[in-house]
Amino acid sequence: MMDYRQQLLTLAAVYRGATGRSEARVATIVHSQGTFFNRIRAGKGCSVDTYLKFKEWFAANWPPATLWPQGVDRPGIMPDAADPADTQPADAA
To answer: What's this model's pTM, rounded to 2 decimal places?
Structure first.
């Protein structure tokens, strides 16, 4: 299994190949920091929240005709808003 840095770099490379978007552009869209992938490549780290933010962004924006890279776990995408029926107290019905 790839470590988290290699997973992020692999996702960025495959995504760039499929869409033509640069790593810097993706990093700016997701994290407002165009140098993010250069830092990861240099061995620097990131928080778990940042890692998950990138993984979720890639999963939500992955090109349909492109296979998800082998060895990279794909997160599930959470809905933007909860279903109101799920938030009602049991005795409110």
So the answer is: 0.80
